[in-house]
Structures are given as C-alpha cells and as structure tokens.
Amino acid sequence: MHTKVRVQTTINGEPQEFLCEPRQSLLECLRDLLGLTGTKEGCNDGNCGACTVLMDDRVVTSCLVLGVEAQGCQITTIEGIARGSELHPLQRSFLENAALQCGICTPGFIVAAKALLDQQPNPSEDEIRLWLANNLCRCTGYDKIIRAVKQAAEQMQEVNA
Amino acid sequence: MKWFDYAAPASLSEAVGLLTAHPGARLLAGGTDLLVQLRAGRKETDLVVDAKHIPELNAISYDAARGLTLGASVPCYRIYKDKNVTGAYPALAEVASLIGGTQIQGRASIGGNLCNAAPSADSVPLLIALHGTCRIAGPRGSREIAVEDFCTAPGRTVLQPGELLVSLHLPPPAPHSGARYLRFIPRNEMDIAVAGAGVEVVLENGRFRSARVALSSVAPTPLYVREAGEALAGSPVDEASIAAAAEIARKSAKPITDMRGTADYRSHLCAVLTRRALEAAVLRARGKN
Fold first, then answer.
1. What is the phi/psi pair of residue A61, to 5°?
2. For chain A, how long is the longest CA-to-CA vector?
3. Which CATH code for domain B5-51?
4. Chain A residues touching chain B at CB-CB below 8 Å
5. Cys bridge to B108: A34, B30, B166, B209, which one at CB 3.0-4.6 A?
6. Does domain B177-285 have CATH number 3.30.160.270?
7. A107 shares a domain with A66
8. What is the pLDDT of residues A84-139, one digit of tens each?
C-alpha cells in the first residue's frame, strides 16, 4: 500500500525523472537514485551545508528538502557548475588557493558561493562570510575559502569587463 | 525516517480536508524544523501535507491602508527581498535574515517559525510587538487570534485537529513608529537566542504614545510583556522611561538554566536587550535608521 512517487525535474539543465519514497530527501534521491554523488552528506540536519544545491536558484540544503518537492523544479548540483571540461572560476580558485583539505565540504561551498556571485559579483569579505555561514569546514579555518571566493569574483569581473 | 505519504493540495479547502481526514498529518512549509524532527524520531506522521502549493499560504500582499498579509509558508528570503516589507517593516526583514543561514532562509518560513512554537523563535517577539494576528483555517471555517495567544507551551499551539495557520497579518505601521528585534547569541550568526527582545514604539510630541515589548527564550512560550508597554505609554522618551520598561521586562522573564545560559544571566539579558531594542526603535521612529 506504500506507493512511491514519480518526480519529474530538471537537474543541471537536463530533464530527469525518478521514482522515490516520499520520505527520501532530495539528497538521497540525488546520490542513491541518480548517482550524483558530488553532493555530500554531512550532518543530515541542515547545519553543515555539505549537501547544498540550488533549487530554482535558491540555495538550499538538500537534506532538508524532500525528493518529491523537486517536482517541476530546476536543480543545480556541483556536477552542473563546470562547463564541460572547463572548471568554473570558483573551482579553479579553490584549487589554486588550496581552499580545501579533506574536500567533503567543498561541493557545498562552491555551489553556495556560485549563488552569491551570481547575485553579487563583488561581495565584501563580510558578505562572503555571512553568506557562507551555513557551510562548515573543519579543515581550513575558512580564510583560504574566503580568499578563493574573493579571487574568483575578481577573475569573473575581469572576464566580464 | 518512518514511511509517510505526501500530498500537495492546491487549495485551502483541500488541505483542510486532508488534515481533517488524517489527524496525524503534519503540514510542511520549509521543512527546516519538521524534517529534522521526523528524522530524529521526535515527531511521527503518516502524511506530510505540503503547504507551498496553497495560494493563500504562499503569497505576500501589502496595502498601505490595510497592512501586510504574509502567507504562512513564504520563505524568509522572499520576505527580506520584498520591497514592501523592507519599506514598511524593516524589523521584519531583519528578523527574516537572522533566522538560520542562507540555505535555511531559502526554505524556512515565519509561519513555520511560529507553528514550531519554540520559546526561542526569533520572529515571534517581533510579530507580537507589531500587533500581529494569525488567520487560522479549519473544518469549522476560519478564525483569527493574536500572535501572543498562539503558542501554548514548547512545541504546542492553539491549532486544533484539522486546522492550519494560513497567514499572518500586520497592521500598517503607525506614523512615527519604529520596531526592532535584538537577540543575544555567543557568535555572529546561526545560533539559538540565549534571550531576545522584540519591541515597537509609537512616538508623539516627545512621548511614547504606545509601545509593545515581547521576549524570546525566557519562558515556555514567546512572552508578551504587556506591562512594559503600558509603563512606556505617555512617558517621555528618555533614559529613565526606557530603563523602567527594561526593568519590567527583566522581572517578567521566567527563564530556565540550560547549556546556553543561566536563568540569572537570561534575566539580565532581558533588561539589556529591551533597553537597546527600545533605543533602536526610537531612532527608527524618528527616521534615523
């Protein structure tokens, strides 16, 4: 009598359909049903931001979204950030600045930072820190991450100038 | 998480029907409290009813004569991006940007903050200060109740089986009025208030025409301190009046000691935060911020 639900959605620009249990989080659907394992599970209660994705251009923690809620939505995950084999400036900048150690938090940071730069191309350090307050990193001490976001913003502005 | 079914009703009557037919159903707005509670086993349900496709719950409307109607499931980021909210209710925009971090604000709603009925809910003291009322729909029609009467105990509200919170209503801001919510947390953002104070003042000829004060995290429910506002009404806008109201707030608080702070410390914070929030609201009422 328990019925799974068919969900039609768009993920990283491609139409996607999956069959999920209503109790499954969007995070579980991405990782376990669709094989999109770039999105990481950290705390699974909305505190750490490792599972951050964009849902209709909103930044959300996918552990606190039900898969069924993605019906009709546009989802962007870390897999949709690079353009083909060309890394997004944020991805390059994270590498160049060594803004990661273990890397579990990195997809969430990059997705969240992309959403910031899309709406605020030249954020101050305070704005970056506040925007990324819902993303936890236990390795870097954050400074390198903030520097990487700042540098990516500068590079993206040069390209657009 | 135990199995539950999911429904996304497209109308209020459909939602009330579902909630009435399934007494154990839970309404889902942003899910930032509910999904955590279901996963941790603190709540159980056989049906999750998604509120976000019900038009009345998902709309913000403002009219200079009638005020603001805020759908119960409107997420925080839509509230602080709304030009009418930032213009007429800047303190509400501030509170919406204070709850959780960016990701939580993409989902969490003020209506959900109220229905979760945590004593620490950041938005509730401000809603009380701003004369907020709740519109509730249920099997016997709709009713209205003041925000200060909505929460009855930690995690408990006046909602009866089959009922749901549709929207919150704030009257238009009075001329020469200002509001502010301030909380104390031991870090810069994303934390649960050790204590908080939401206030609104209306000024007239150097005196308080009226004022309202409410507190968070210092009682089993968000606490409306009627006496503090009554003491301010008619008093001159000065340090002594504000200090007297802050002292009333301190005495009204009934805090507990827990890992976030002792009862004494919380009482002290009530006085400090009430004073600072009143000072900030007075500046705002005078058009200085």
1. -90, 120
2. 59
3. 3.30.43.10
4. 2-3, 5, 21-23, 25, 44-46, 49, 52, 55, 58-61, 63-66, 68-69, 71, 112, 115, 130-135
5. B30
6. no
7. no
8. 999 999 999 999 999 999 999 999 999 999 999 999 999 999 999 999 999 999 99
